[in-house]
Amino acid sequence: MAGPPAGVHIANIDGASRGNPGPASYAVVLRDASGKIVLELAKHIGRETNNVAEYYALLAALDYAATHDIPALRIRSDSELLVRQMQGRYKVKSPDLKPLHERAAKLARQIQYFVIEHVRRELNSDADALANLALDQAGTAGGVRRKPRNLKFALRMAKPSRSRRKKTLKPVRRGSSSSLRIRARFLNGVLVPVESLDLPKAVR
Questions:
Q1: 82 vs 88: CA distance, rounded Å
Q2: Is 63 helix (H, G, I), strand (E, B) or coil?
Q3: Segment (H or E) for 172
Q4: DSSP assignment, residue 128?
Q5: Average pLDDT, whole number, for the chain?
Q6: Are 146 and 138 in contact (CB under 8 A)?
Q7: Model pTM greater than 0.90?
Q8: Cα–Cα distance for residue pair 98/131, rounded to 1 Å
Q9: Strand 9-17, strand 72-77: pairing
Q10: Distance CA 113, CA 6 (A)
Q11: Does the structure show a pLDDT above 80 at 164?
Q12: C-alpha distances in angstroms, 25 versus 35, 44, 117, 129, 184?
């Protein structure tokens, strides 16, 4: 059997759902044949199950490959269900997953070389961290709900230095006499509020 062609891109994908179903997101970390990261994509998708979020991650990776003329793609996922269904080893019984599976299979056929494989969660840590960061950034703290939107990151997953892990944001002026002080912690390259925010409308 012939081996894989030269120039295979590798995409680590992951989906996350807090509550299952609950607030959900997905992430894709795509590397070229040299190992260089060419895409880090994360998106909050509202209330979904973990399995649906996993399929959204797969579709995002496949769609990017198809629209950017990537002829060879290897998908790595820690979802055994997703991988076995795409390999044809498990049947797709869920009515929520069937249309997603059909679209993923169609996109996969458009790629000259496509392989999907199951990996342990610790080998999928970049995508896992990115999916959870998308949930943290979704604005659900304090009961605030936002329309799902794309969040693209160019992150370094290394831990921040000890001196930078906790920071306090400077007051945000909302007029001549009032100000707002927000306590936040430094996490994965961003400032995350420690407490729920009760902000007036139109305040970002």
A1: 10
A2: helix
A3: strand 172-173
A4: H
A5: 80
A6: yes
A7: no
A8: 23
A9: parallel
A10: 10
A11: no
A12: 25, 4, 21, 11, 22
